[in-house]
Structures are given as C-alpha cells and as structure tokens.
Amino acid sequence: MKKSGELQNSPQAASKKVARQKVLLGLVGAFVVLLAVLPLFASGFWMRTLTLLFLLAAMAEGWNFIGGYTGYAAFGNVAFFGIGAYGTALSMLRLHFPFFLALLVGAAAAMLFAVLVGLPVLRLKGHYFAIATVALATGVGEVADFWTDFTGGAAGLTLPFFHPIQLSNYFFYYIAFVLVLFGLGLTYFIMKRKLGYSWLAIREDEDAAKMMGINTTWSKVVAFALSALMAGLAGGIYAYWNTFVLAEEVFKIEYTLQMILATVLGGPGTVFGPFIGAFIYYILITLLVFFLPVGQLHATILGLIIILVMVFTPQGVMDFLSGRKRLTLSALLENIRTHKV
After folding, report:
1. 201, 207, 208, 211 alpha-carbon torsion, rounded to 10°
2. What is the domain extent for residue 135?
3. Going by C-beta distance under 8 Å and a sequence separation of 6 or more, which residues neighbour residue 311?
4. Interval 123-142: pLDDT, tens
5. Of 245, 279, 313, which residue constitutes the final position of a domain?
6. Do 233 and 186 lie in a common domain?
7. What gap in Å lies between CA 336 and CA 326, rounded to an integer?
8. Which of 231, 256, 279 is a domain's end point?
9. pLDDT tens digits, one per residue of 182-226
10. Contact assessment for residue 159 and residue 240, using Cβ atoms and an 8 Å cutoff
11. Could you give the CA distance from residue 203 to residue 82 in angstroms, rounded to a whole number?
12. Same domain, 274 and 314
C-alpha cells in the first residue's frame, strides 16, 4: 500500500491539483470580466459600494505583503492611506499637478515614509512591532490634524470635482478596479521571484533566513514600502473621489483593522485571498446594513459570521477554494482541532 505522502505526490494528484488551479483561474477570470462590464447595468449605489470594496481590497493586498507573507503584524498601515490622501490633495492644490501625477506623488510620499520608519521599526518583533506601528499611525494623524498651515488642520482640504461630473462614478470605479488588478499582478510577480521566497523564509524563521544569507532588513523594508504603495494609491483615489481630506477621516484605525480582517478572511499569504476576503467582508456588511437598517444588530451578526469563519477556516477561505482542504464537516472540525489554543 502506498503511503499518504506518495499518494499526494502521484501523477493523478498532481493532475487534479493543476485542474483545480485552472478552474479557479477560470472562475477568477470570469469574475474579473463581470466586474469590468458591471457599470453598464449597475446602479449608482452598487457602483459606489464596489468602488469602496476595491479600495479595501487594494489596501488588503498591500497589507498582505508585510503581514501575510513576511509575518509582521502591522497595525498602522492607515498612516500610508492618510499620507497618500494628503500627498495627492496637496500636490493638486499647492503644486497644481494633474490628478494622476499627484496620485504618484502621494504614493511616493507614503513609500518614503515607510522606508524611513521601517528601518528602525522593523527591528522590533511581535507585539512590540504592532504597538509601534499603531503609535506611528496615531502620531501622523495628530500632526496632520494640528499642522493647520500645511494640511488645513481641522478645516481639512477641499479638492476640485472631477469633470465631467456625470462620469465621475465610472472614472473612480475603473481606477479602483485597475488598482486591484495591479495589486494582484504585483503579488503574483513577486511571489515567483527571490524577493517573495525571502519573505516566506522570514515568516517561517527569520534567524534561519539570516543564516541562509538573506538580507532580512532589506526584504522587510521592501515589503513595508510596497504595502505603503498600495495604501497610498488607495488613499489618493479616495481623496479625489471624496473631494475632501480630513485627518480624522483618513487616519481611522478601523481602516487598518478592515484590511487585516479582509486578508485573514480570504487567506493570508495567498495571491487572491485579500481580494476574496474584502469581497466577503464588504458585501456582507452592505447587505446586513441594507436589510437591518435599525440599530446595531447588523454589526453583531457580522461579528458572529466572522467568528464562525475564523473558527472553521483559520487559514482563510482560499484553503478550500484552492483545493488544499475539502469543504466537508470533518475537514472543518479538523481545522478546529489543528488550530486550537
């Protein structure tokens, strides 16, 4: 009789795995095409909802670089979102840059900040790193709120409307959609390169990665900077779409929690996990708010759903979609036994 490991490595098992991957890619491709043509028949409400979903997915894809692949629990990525928003707004208002150039300036500012703070902060590990990133995000938000001469302070910054205004919903929908595709492509590209393998090595055992000759400091800073890139681009798009930037709005810690939650729900350390998790989270909360508009019952139900997902699929729904686990009651119970504290 063959051993289970031999069965898993058999040609039949390999061909089934390839077939599942092809089916998954086909479904993702069909879903992308559907999203691309959706504005032709979707209402303004759903276009706005999906635009917000895309921005969340893009930020989750960025957080996945540092949190999912590298294994560093960053709780301050909202700082990059806010810097991207302010960088874009200030470039448009003070330097009179066109939107796309201003968007790049905002994203570059977020990346530069990530590199400067990442060099010292990424020397910390575990809860020390998490607390440090929260403190940084809070500090940057406070600076933006009180630096009236530069950021507008409590009065905020007002951006010009997109013209023609009747096409604004389509414009921001598609630019956010392209940002998500860019994030997916960037993730896939990096994880096929040496940099991606270095992230995985750091996540598994950073000391062993150093002994193997991996420049762990450089790898972690690059992951941090790329997560800042995605959040900064999302912040810049949000700023122009919202036509108003205020510190208390763009530095909300709940934005970081949402990107972490989306990544964990979908599957950290996977290409499609953050997007799938963002879709699950945002569609659920939108439907719950829509059907339960009174009180906070929708938040309670959403919390229960998230708890159930986390209990039964600790590694995210991509475990089942990719075929690594079977969606059966025994597999779900085995997940609980494997990951129990």
Report:
1. 110
2. 43-279
3. 336
4. 998 889 989 999 999 999 99
5. 279
6. yes
7. 14
8. 279
9. 999 999 999 999 999 999 999 999 999 999 999 999 999 999 999
10. yes
11. 27
12. no
pLDDT digits (tens, 9 = 90+) for 31-72: 888 888 888 888 888 899 899 999 999 999 999 999 999 999
- Residue 70 has what DSSP assignment? S
Q: Which residues contact 57 (CB under 8 A, 6 or more apart)?
A: 180, 183, 262, 274, 275, 278, 279
Q: Which residue's structure tokens are 């810097």? A: 83
Q: Cα(327)–Cα(38) distance, rounded to whole angstroms?
A: 30
Q: Are residues 162 and 305 in the same domain?
A: no
Q: What integer pLDDT is reported at residue 331 of this predicted model?
A: 54
Same domain (yes/no): 143, 110: yes
Q: Is residue 285 part of a domain?
A: no
The amino acid occupying position 54 is: F
pTM reported for the whole predicted model: 0.87
Q: Which residue has the tokens 């599957």?
A: 267
- Assign 3-class secondary structure to 230-265: HHHHHHHHHHHHHCEECHHHHCCHHHHHHHHHHHHH
Instruction: Please give the Cα distance from 289 to 154 (Å, whole number).
Output: 30
What are the residue ranges of helices labelled H in the chain?
A: 4-8, 11-37, 44-63, 78-93, 99-121, 126-146, 148-151, 168-190, 194-204, 206-211, 216-242, 247-250, 253-266, 273-291, 297-312, 318-321, 329-338
